TrEMBL record:
This is Olfactory receptor. It holds the Pfam family 7tm_4. It is a multi-pass membrane protein. Residues 40-249 form the G-protein coupled receptors family 1 profile domain. One of its GO terms (cellular component) is plasma membrane. Putative odorant or sperm cell receptor. The lineage of its organism: Eukaryota, Metazoa, Chordata, Craniata, Vertebrata. Keywords: Cell membrane, G-protein coupled receptor, Membrane, Olfaction, Receptor, Sensory transduction, Transducer, Transmembrane, Transmembrane helix. It comes from Muntiacus reevesi. PROSITE patterns: G_PROTEIN_RECEP_F1_1, G_PROTEIN_RECEP_F1_2. It is found in: Cell membrane.
Length: 308
């Protein structure tokens, strides 16, 4: 049991206050990235809604991912931007718990939807004849609902474990948001055991979904290599390129955060930036710029605007 136990009502998010001379610069950079991230995701959601050519399972899942990532960034970035400009970086224990709950839930949902996108490509390429029967609108809707349910089911367990007891002073969260590792270390209970359990849950979910995606691409690759024409192979691979790129970036940055050895050192605040800010920014950019259907839909919308 830790000493100096007290019933804390709020935490202080240390964040980037340890770098006082660059906080204004960081605010400008993060604010611009956040606006571009929101614009990209809203553009994807809008285009997949208005263009009938994009009313397919692949773009249904992309729309779901864009919505999930929009909510994901809303849970942490606005608060981070405010804290970069103010000296009052307090957050109540309840708000901290809610932020953690939604961050973990939406992070898990993102991983699950990326897995569904890989499964969708697997069915489309490896089983094209039965694909329209297997991937109906009803099935796609249920799969996305399951992804949200799974993400928030794990999240409520992790958040409950961390917030089940009281917290000890000092109430300094050494992060720019209520990251589970930073908060659990302030617990008056056995924080090492709790930290181990929630970390194992996160790593298991992360690696499990990643391995499923890798397995789907093994089957996709074996099928594509059997296609006789080079044009057919290129067309098949082109439908997977954007998704595979995002998967590598998403799981690559996430693994740095969750698989980093404790003894390796490094500032957790800085290490989390790629996963929480850069990845959501790159995702809509990659799906838009590397996708012919999305670019054609964008040209159609622009054409209609100019005609009006």
């Amino acid at each position: 049991m830790k000493i100096n136990q007290t019933v804390l009502k709020e935490f202080i998010l240390v964040g980037f206050s340890v770098y006082p001379h660059v906080q204004t610069f960081l605010f400008v950079i993060f604010f611009c990235l956040y606006l571009l991230t929101l614009s990209g995701n809203l553009a994807i959601m809008g285009l997949t809604w208005v263009d009938r050519c994009l009313h397919t399972p692949m773009y249904f899942f992309l729309n779901a991912l864009s919505f999930s990532e929009t909510c994901y960034t809303l849970t942490i970035i606005p608060k981070m931007l405010v804290n970069l400009l103010t000296k009052n970086r307090n957050i109540s224990v309840i708000d901290c718990g809610l932020q953690m709950y939604f961050f973990l839930g939406l992070g898990g949902t993102n991983c699950a939807i990326l897995t569904l996108m890989g499964y969708d490509r697997f069915l489309a390429i490896c089983n094209p004849l039965r694909y329209p029967l297997l991937m109906t609108n009803m099935v796609c809707g249920k799969l996305v609902a399951y992804a949200w349910a799974a993400g928030f089911f794990v999240s409520v367990i992790q958040t409950s474990l961390i917030f089940r007891g009281s917290f000890c002073n000092p109430n300094l969260v050494k992060h720019f948001f209520c990251h589970m590792r930073a908060v659990v270390r302030l617990s008056c209970l056995d924080s090492d055991l709790t930290e181990f359990i929630v970390t194992v849950m996160s790593v298991s979910g992360l690696m499990g979904t990643f391995l499923v995606i890798i397995l789907t691409y093994v089957f996709i690759l074996s099928t594509v290599l059997k296609i006789p024409s080079a044009e057919g192979k290129q067309k098949a691979f082109s439908t997977c390129a954007s998704h595979l790129t995002v998967v590598i970036i998403h799981f690559g940055f996430a693994s740095i955060v969750y698989l980093k050895p404790e003894a390796s050192g490094g500032d957790d605040t800085v290490i989390a930036v790629p996963y929480t800010v850069i990845t959501p920014f790159l995702s809509p950019l990659i799906f838009s710029l590397r996708n012919k259907d999305m670019k054609n839909a964008f040209r159609k919308v622009l054409g209609k605007k100019f005609l009006e």
